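Whiteboard transcription, Tuesday session. T.W. wrote the structure tokens on the left side:
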């Protein structure tokens, strides 16, 4: 008997124990019993009307049958055990799926929803999902989505986000994707505005305001923007969600994360109405990410590409002041790149590798004429023009004392 089967039997036993202790007049189970048949033998001959021996046997047989069918190892043990536990419990309490009951619950929930009794309607829709059969996929999706809508209109936004996520998980191509994206985007903007107004401490739990998540209102706003974009990658709110998420990071000074969002928008939504603003903000991000000539040059290179792209492709859309500012930024790129080569030359100079230093001083003068770095490179070059290319080898005489041969 494999481990998975044993675990599933333990789950079934747990479900049986909870129900039987509640419904049976007497139940004697030895703590040393390991076999389910021994447990079944101790069940009272006159149990509660809702729990009879046939139901228990059917539950056990179903569990065994499912174990044999699913014994190929497909899926995780946790998923299998959870499904077996739920199935066994439903057989025990005689709460099996029913299409007619599901339809009735859905109708009751819809009536309550139209009456704006959202709390009661959410319970009906939740019960409807429980009662749906395997064939009632459309009804179950409707009930699942409307339960989320109940939470949304009842201002329970954190619960609404979780429920919308449940719909997305179970129905990847849900016909409600557009509407869910709109709801999630609205929730994200609301949480973001709340944070900007109140600046909640992300570590202080929220137990009193059902409109907000328990922790980190602003961080959850960014997550919701991401969820809105994933709901429908080409939908109405997808590019707006990416832009909103990038702006949120930008305001928090998280320039690397903001740049990733702007890059995503520029690459995947070239026709977005936010494209020019995304490029402008991304240019600022890249400049903030560049921290000097002794560090990675990629942010500087990316910034130069963005500035050139803005002038060449979106120049007419920029006002005169913005174009002037971008051109001023472009004028500094040569100086910044010259400083990188100058820093390398200084490194070799300090190590007394004057030949390599002269070479890099030459690069600066050749590639970046007219810059301050070029003038400095010329002066430094003249200072070391007649010095040896490499430092003197202090222990050269050792090779004569200990020849290789």
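and on the right, the sequence the group agreed on:
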């Amino acid at each position: 008997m494999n481990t998975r089967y044993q675990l599933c039997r333990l789950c079934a036993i747990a479900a049986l124990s909870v129900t039987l202790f509640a419904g049976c007049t007497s139940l004697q189970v030895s703590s040393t019993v390991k076999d389910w048949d021994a447990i079944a033998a101790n069940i009272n001959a006159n149990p509660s009307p809702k729990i009879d021996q046939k139901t228990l046997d059917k539950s056990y047989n179903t569990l065994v049958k499912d174990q044999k069918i699913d014994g190929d190892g497909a899926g995780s043990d946790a998923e299998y055990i959870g499904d077996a536990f739920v199935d066994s419990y439903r057989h025990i309490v005689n709460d099996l799926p029913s299409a007619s009951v599901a339809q009735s619950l859905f109708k009751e929930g819809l009536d309550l929803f139209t009456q704006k009794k959202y709390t009661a309607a959410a319970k009906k829709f939740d019960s409807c999902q429980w009662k749906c059969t395997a064939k009632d996929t459309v009804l179950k999706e409707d009930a699942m989505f409307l339960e989320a809508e109940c939470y949304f209109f009842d201002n329970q936004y954190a619960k609404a986000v979780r429920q919308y996520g449940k719909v997305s998980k179970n129905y990847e191509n849900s016909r409600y994707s557009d509407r869910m994206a709109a709801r999630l985007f609205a929730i994200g903007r609301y949480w973001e505005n709340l944070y900007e107004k109140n600046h909640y401490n992300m570590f202080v739990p929220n137990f009193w305001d059902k409109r907000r998540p328990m922790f980190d209102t602003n961080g959850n706003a960014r997550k919701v923007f991401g969820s809105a974009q994933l709901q429908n990658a080409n939908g109405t709110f997808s590019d707006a969600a990416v832009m909103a998420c990038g702006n949120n990071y930008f305001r928090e000074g998280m320039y690397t994360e903001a740049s990733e969002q702007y890059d995503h928008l520029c690459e995947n939504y070239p026709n977005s109405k936010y494209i020019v603003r995304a490029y402008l903000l991304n240019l600022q991000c890249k400049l903030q990410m560049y921290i000097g000539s002794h560090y990675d040059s990629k942010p500087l290179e990316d910034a130069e590409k963005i500035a050139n792209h803005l002038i060449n492709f979106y120049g007419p859309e920029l006002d005169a002041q913005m174009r002037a500012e971008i051109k001023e930024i472009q004028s500094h790129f040569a100086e910044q790149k010259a400083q990188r080569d100058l820093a390398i030359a200084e490194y070799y100079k300090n190590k007394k590798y004057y030949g390599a230093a002269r070479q890099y001083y030459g690069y600066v003068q050749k590639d970046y004429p007219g810059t301050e770095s070029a003038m400095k490179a010329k002066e430094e070059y003249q200072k070391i023009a007649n010095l040896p290319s490499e430092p003197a080898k202090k222990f050269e005489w050792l090779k004569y004392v200990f020849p290789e041969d």
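Someone added at the bottom: The two ends are 73 Å apart (CA to CA).
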